[in-house]
Amino acid sequence: MPKRKAPEDLSVEELRRLLLDKRRVTRKERLDHFRRTGRTVMLAPDVTETSLRDLQSSPVVETPEAGEVEVPVSPRRRWFDRTLLAVEVLAVIGLVSLGVVFFGVLSDLNRESAAALAQPTMTATPLVMAVVLPSGHVPPDAQGNTRPNEAEIPEHLRPMVQSLANLAAPTAGPEQALRIQIPALGVDAPIVQGDGWEQLKKGVGQYIGSANPGQKGNLVLSAHNDVYGQIFRDLDRLEPGDQVIVYTQQRQYVYVVARTLIVEPTQVEVMAPTTDATVTLISCYPYLIDKQRIVVAAKLQNP
């Protein structure tokens, strides 16, 4: 093995060769590193013996490392990339906005559809506030003739009462009263809708808007006591516990008498709605005098 010379014993050419060899090794190590990290774009050819001989006659010049060369990015390409990024951001914002609008419209459509399909809440026809209690009339004469007792009605309210009397009575539905029986009095009579003068000629009249049989509320029924069949002539004979049976198309409802009152014709509060199922029977009183009203209230027995 040849003896290694000290640096001061080397000639200029040997020192140059040694320097070039060291630079070649260092450059190769850097290139290998850049290849592994993906930073190398172009590679400089390896320094060979021929190149070394060419360099012998030329001075050593520092050059940039080949592995450090990077591809320059033009301003036009940079502007294009930024524009593309802005377009992508705007597209994402637009899609999000469309999604929000879509779900808002869908929510509105669902609410409208639900409202359209929802069944309306059925409520009873509101009571028309009566001025006087029904069935009022003047006592019949010797021939049995009679007429409505308009003297019971305040003069300034008579036009309104007359206009209501001309309203057509509705046809009874399957849940409305059709017939009444009072076993203690032997009463068995039809029930019609409305309690005007013409309706009470046909039987017992149900006050329009009052509760149907079996329902919570006040079922108001009235009839004459001394004309047109005298259906309610003996209401004053009823006692607590007596039955009042009301029929519909589907079933019967049994009410039990709770109390009996004698009131003035203007005490219309006895017709007010109640919190439980009640039937109220009304007729003129006393018999053949007809200046007051008899009112019988009964509670539902078989709900």
Describe the structure in your own words.
With 303 residues, the protein is an alpha+beta fold. Among the domains are: 7-68; 174-300, Sortase (Sortase, Chain: A, Beta Barrel), CATH 2.40.260.10. Helix content is 28%, strand content 18%. The protein is built from four helices and eight strands; from the N terminus they run ααααββββββββ. The protein has helices at residues 12-37, 49-56, 75-117, 158-165, and strands spanning 179-182, 187-193, 204-206, 217-222, 243-247, 252-263, 277-285, 292-300. An eight-stranded mixed beta barrel has the order 1-2-3-4-7-8-6-5. The longest helix has 43 residues, at 75-117. Mean pLDDT is 82; it is low at 60-68 and 123-128.
Name some characteristics of this structure.
single chain; 303 residues; alpha+beta; Sortase, Chain: A; eight-stranded mixed beta barrel; 4 helices; rod-shaped
Q: Output the number of helix runs.
A: 4
CATH topology of the domain at 174-300: Sortase, Chain: A
Look at the structure and give the CATH class of the domain at 174-300. Answer: Mainly Beta
Low-pLDDT regions:
60-68, 123-128
Helix content: 25-40%
Largest sheet: 8 strands, mixed, barrel
What overall geometry do the principal axes of the alpha carbons give? rod-shaped
> Taking all residues together, what is the mean pLDDT?
82
Q: In which order are the strands of the major sheet placed?
A: 1-2-3-4-7-8-6-5
Q: Note the gap between the termini.
A: 125 Å
